[in-house]
Amino acid sequence: MDGIVFFRTERHDDVIDFYRSLGADVWLEQPDCTILEAGAFRFGFCDRDRADTDGIVTFVFDDRDGVDERYEQLADRANGEPAFNETYDIYQFFASDPEGRTVEFQTFE
């Protein structure tokens, strides 16, 4: 079984460009929705009159190097430097996409 998470967006092109800059590829274009794919993770954005900004879009990497590379790319959008989270045994940082959606970058340790 596969799945896709969809979000409403008011800034379709900016949001798609942001996630593509992170390495996501367009999996499917629909009339007002774009579905992206990053590894086995599929997520879509549909052009609407309001945006869904609740929840967290989380990208999981194999190791700290992947997280650190994304931090270097997104330091100006990050909410802080990558750090180890003892509660969940993960190394992570958070950033915001162009609409203010929380985006997490992590690796399990």
From TrEMBL:
<dbReference type="InterPro" id="IPR029068">
    <property type="entry name" value="Glyas_Bleomycin-R_OHBP_Dase"/>
</dbReference>
<protein>
    <submittedName>
        <fullName>VOC family protein</fullName>
    </submittedName>
</protein>
